[in-house]
Amino acid sequence: AFDSFVVGSNNELAHAASLRVTKELGKLYNPLFLYGGVGLGKTHLLQAIGNKVVSENKDRKVLYISAERLTADIVEAIGNKTIEDLKNRYSKLDLLIIDDVQFIAGKVKTQDIVFSTFNELYGRNKQILLSSDRPPQVIPALEERLRSRFQGGMIADVGAPDFETRLVILKMKVAEKSSTLEDEILSYIATHIQKNVRELEGALNRVLAFSQIYNRIPDL
Q1: Do the Cβ atoms of 122 and 153 come closer than 8 Å?
Q2: Where are the alpha helices (DSSP H) in 92-182?
């Protein structure tokens, strides 16, 4: 959800664009393309958009799918000779979210399906959201026609959080788990883990697990 996403200078634009999309679905920032390293919050934002859209209108048809799962579905549909059914199902969506879209690079049939689905949805002002570990112009083995489509909307990066943002994330996670830790411990974790929010939370979980297992409040 958006409520549990910590906004900092590293993700301010991506967060603002994501919120705006929920208010003007298919009319603005279409497609919205988010890119950045692993564990920085791209999937969090994509799912926050999907959840907000569904919560505000239960009749909206929303699909979140990873590019790897999409490719597997297409391979299965080809084998079962149900590819037209698959394309028809996708074409009825109000919001299509494809995570880690860089994985379709080099997969010719998957790119064909994504291209035709993209055109169908875009032509009917339906929203498309995409994420990748890099901007579309540097995804290798991506067809030029798809690259052009991906670049035609809004591109926003999700960068590594600064120290202050990391500290806010840790404090929020501690509160979520109904635990307490000294600020100096949280500052220590935030200082030593800088590039990945997932690793940051993992480090915090190890400290909290230590506290619970040994029934001790850890000091620095």
Answers
A1: no
A2: 108-123, 144-150, 163-176
Digit-coded pLDDT (tens) for 123-174: 999 999 999 999 999 999 899 999 999 999 999 999 999 999 999 999 999 9
Rounded CA Rg of the chain: 20
Instruction: Convert the pLDDT of each residue in 37-70 to its tens digit.
Output: 998 999 999 999 999 999 999 999 999 999 999 9
Are the beta carbons of 8 and 58 closer than 8 angstroms? no
Q: Give CA torsion, residues 46, 51, 56, 57, to 10 deg.
A: 100
Distance (Å, rounded) from C-alpha 114 to C-alpha 205?
38
CB neighbour burial string for 123-133, b if at least 16 within 10 angstroms, e if fewer: eeebbbbbbbb
For residue 151, the Cα-to-chain-centroid distance in whole angstroms is 17
Among residues 168, 159, 144, the alpha carbon closest in space to that of 34 is found at 159
What is the rounded CA–CA span in Å between residue 64 and residue 151? Answer: 20
Q: Which candidate, 26, 30, 25, places its Cα nearest to that of 125?
A: 26
Helices 83-91 and 108-123 meet at what angle, rounded to 10?
A: 30
State the Cα–Cα distance between residues 113 and 115, nearest whole angstrom.
5
Q: Is the pTM of this model over 0.85?
A: yes
